[in-house]
Amino acid sequence: MKVGKKNKLLYHVGILIAFILVINGLASFYFVRFDLTQEKRYTLSQVSKETLQSLPDQVMVRIYLYGDLPLSFRKFSQTIREMLDEFRVYAGAKLQYEFIDPYESKDEKQIQANIEKLYRMGLQPTSVKMQDPKGGYSEKMVIPGAIVSYGNRDFAVNLLSNNPAFSGEENLNHSVQNLEYNLINAIRCVIQSKVEKVAFLEGHGEWDEYHTGDMMKALSNYFQVDRGRLKGDVNELKPYKCLIIAGPTLPFTEEDKFIIDQYIMGGGKVLWLLDAVSIDRDSFAQGNAYATIAQLNLDDMLFKYGVRLNPVLVQDIQCALIPIASGSTTGQAKFVPTPWPYFPLIAGAYDHPVSRNLNLIKLEFASYIDTLNVPNVHHTVLLKTSKYSRLKSVPSFVRLSEIRNGFAQEEFNNSYLPVAVLLEGVFPSVFQNRMLSALKITGNYTFRPHSNQNKMLVVADGDIIRNQVRQTQRGILITPLGFDSYTSQIFGNKDFLLNAVQYLTDEKNIIDLRSRNIELRLLDKAKILDQATKWKIINTLLPLVIIIFSGIVFFWWRNKKYT
Fold first, then answer.
1. What confidence tens digit (pLDDT) does each residue in 124-140 have?
2. ∠ at Cα 390 (388, 391), nearest 5°?
3. DSSP-assigned letters across all residues of 418-463
4. Which of 3, 60, 98, 378 has the least C-beta neighbours within 10 A?
5. Phi-psi map region of 353: left, alpha, beta (phi>0 left; psi -120 to 50 alpha)
6. CA geometry: angle at 520 spanning 515 and 525, to 5°?
7. Taking CA 499 as the corner, what is the angle to CA 312 and CA 171, rounded to the nearest 5 degrees?
8. Do residues 501 and 220 touch, judged by C-beta distance below 8 A?
9. Chain centroid, CA 435 distance in Å
């Protein structure tokens, strides 16, 4: 090679090295990242960045989805690692993480003890099938969750969406969609210095602390949870971010309604869980129960805010199973699982962060809601019945014998009836233009005729929050909310209500992270089967052909240049 050409080559190499050094120097002062995916799956939201940048001290995340896992879970584990690496870009050394294999120990008793400890902390193990070296299959419990720690606080976060209505691929895709929200929400909970308060209302026959025990426990991870009666002081609800009215059975006094109304006018959030129909469940021991219109004295309030609860019972083809005695051949009653249309299973609206990607939600003796045209109030239906539903008027008997007659699909001619409606906007006071001097109210206040921008959620079923309670020798045992002891299925009641309270009280809109959508691009299995040989040949031979052709072209070009 001539000296001139050599100097020219060294000159160009020097220019390239200098350019790279300049780029690296600029990169150390200016932070730039590019996400070329269509869904921006590697781009964190602004609220996530602000949360991570404001960490007061070191936060530790321990992930237990690690070790010998099926391929799909290994991919999910890698996605979690990539997400945490992205978090560290903004949090720096204040965020540390560690992947732990629960099966690392060789001692079976120690492994079992570890899994039980994690379960008590709140992580939910799930069973998966694993292929062994001999070609068979065995079941293994994996823990797709993490423990987020800050100081002496620990928060368990389950990262796997496990909806029986979806395939395994869809559930994992939903888990990826919710990953940023689940982790950021857990971090926010452990680092928050001020704990907001929510309250369960009492005094009107609402569900007690035992029948709402599991929901109260879940909320206590995020809020200080109190219970109490209204005592006539208009200011007694002021300290609370949200008021939960869970299944009242007795009428509200005008004084209580005024306190709640002014709480709403002042910006307070309310979660209404109301039964429009009263039914005596104990009567089902005799095979029937009488259903009547519930007298709660709340119709005027809800009407003013923009909804009306219809005093009818909703029946749905998509419903839960109940055990029905069908006779006996051995002296013991035989119970047969039977669909019970008075217990509808409701799918949440996919386009809202409160209800998307949840398991089916179980209701019991629910009614439906009409939305009314109120200026400056916007309605969003979060839960509605299936295409095949119908209504039963009250007062009337509800009889178990209805099951024997069967249910014809053509009889279910009502579709998509709203059972949970979110209201957002400026609410008018129900006490406008009314004489307030007759009310026995204490405390100093200035009457507010309307609210500022506010929101509330109305659900036409008080049982949505009720967990089962059993009396045992060790005391009262509270069953997890949404757990069906007959089918061993866990419905999405708790997740829906927890999302609802967080949405109502969330000023930073962190729950909007649940709206992230990552499209699942699955291969066409029919094409894979029909065209398997063709694509195997293409994938095997085409790379070889390309390499050989490139070699021939390179040899020809080299010959032409240097000959």
1. 888 877 666 655 666 77
2. 160
3. EEEEEEEEEEEPTTTTS--TTS--BS-----SEEEEEEEEEES-GG
4. 3
5. alpha
6. 160
7. 100
8. no
9. 44
